Amino acid sequence: MRFAALILSILLFAAALALALLTGAIGWIVVAVVLAVPLLVGIHDLIQRRHSILRNYPILGHARFALETVRPELQQYFIERNYDGRPYDRDTRTAIYERAKGLKDEQAYGTERDVAEPGYEWLLHSSAPVDPPKDAPPPRVRIGGPDCTKPYDMALLNVSAMSFGALSANAITALNRGAAAGGFAHDTGEGGLTEHHLHGGDLVWEIGTGYFGCRTRDGGFDEAKFRDKAAHDQVKMVSLKLSQGAKPGIGGVLPGPKVTDEIARARDVPAGETCVSPPSHKVFSTPRELVRFIAHMRELAGGKPTGFKLCVGARHELLAICKAMVEENVTPDFITVDGAEGGTGAAPAEYEDHMGTPLTEGLIMVHNALVGTGLRDRIRIGASGKVATGSDIVKRLAQGADYTNAARAMMMATGCIMSQRCHTNECPVGVATQDPKRARALDVADKTQRVQRYQAATVAEAQRMLGSMGLRDPQAVTPHNLMRRIDHVHTRSYAELYEWLEPDQLLDEPPAAWAVDWERADPDAFAPRR
Q1: Most exposed among 233, 304, 395, 426, judged by the fewest C-beta atoms under 10 Å?
Q2: Which residues pair with 202 in a beta bridge?
């Protein structure tokens, strides 16, 4: 059906041409010439490299661009919808598509949002703004605690975890080449470290509950395989995935037909068989064992920064991990907080809508827990979950993050049009599919440039916003800089809305709001103390 219009054009042109040659009638010659136009358009669509959707839907794909020309808001609503069905706001659409294409992102008129609506947020500008640096390199965040011997300087915005298997080989390649060109990091996702990741971009190698890429035959953790792959020059950090925001508490499933020979080799699993990630890890069962395993991973990785990713759940479990860190005097180099609003290729609707802590609350909880236990200066915090614009970056810094990761926005920079067909293997633009005929539509060279342009423009906009706030250093952002409307009359800064702990406060005298969870936290069990 994707090529129905092109096939029809070929048949109609062939028929008209045959009749013109047989009869010599002027009328049929004119008809053949007219029918040659859509045929030539279809052929051009197939061979051009700028638009993935035209490569996969020759002739038919022009309907999408007609919507853009005639009525942009129709195209916005029907094609570029968010995962929850609501259209992206103008700022987000502009930040991703236009910046990725290298177009100007200025807009006429004012904000599209109702500034009097409860929940509206804004950043406080300064009466003494500063110019953003013009020639200096983009800001970096050094990741590496006292036990790390090979620290890494992380960009403010990076590619979040997306596996080969969920994304096509061309999409992974474009993301990694974009990261190499722009000097930012690319998280592999839990699907293994593959040749498609090895195009010069800095990597965060993620290890999930399936231990793909460093897996024993019985599904355990293979230290030798991990050590060998972690030694690769492109692997700058390693991350242990505890949970994912869109589906915390369950593992991923890759249906057997999608487990190609190539994916099977990358994941150390049998080809053609459904690949299931268990819900929990085999290598630890308590917070103390988790902390010790992080230290062991760092040793096996030759001292490279090592941390973990989680969607925050019960607060006493997070505090139990912090207690284990204090007692063992061992800390991860980073913690990536994944918000419940984060995306996924496929998950039960109940999990997407009702399970897991949103990024704002998760970030603030992790930041406070580390500050309260005196560990914050040893551990960097990354934020992942619907990060797309410069304002998203600055807001997450105000809420406790040191840097951010983006998945959905990076997919859109590679050409994703949010058709929500990821789980069907029928992605119309070749981003989230293992169908080689569909994946060929994604031109790697063009999308590499778009990924690099999007990241650079978004970080530059974050720097400009910081300058408008009178700040030169991203780490100078505080909760006082971010405001929220509570109701139609009252507004509060994040410093007023949330409780912010002092260094060592949990160790010395936990505040009333934290005391019960602190008492329940057990470094030798995730279950609460009774």
Answers
A1: 233
A2: 185
Tokens representing 71 are 């009525």
* This prediction's pTM: 0.86
Residues 6+ apart with CB under 8 A from 111: none
Whether 108 is in a domain gets the answer no
Q: Is residue 375 situated within a structural domain?
A: yes
How many domains is the chain built from? 2
Contact 167, 407 (CB under 8 A): no
User: Is position 126 within any domain?
Assistant: no
E strand spans, 60-201: 121-123, 140-143, 152-155, 157-159, 185-187
CATH number of the structural domain spanning residue 205: 3.20.20.70
Same domain, 64 and 211: no
Q: Which domain holds residue 377?
A: 140-519
Tokens matching residue 32: 């053949």
Given 64, 79, 94, the domain boundary residue is 79
Examine the domain organization and report whether 69 and 166 are in the same domain: no
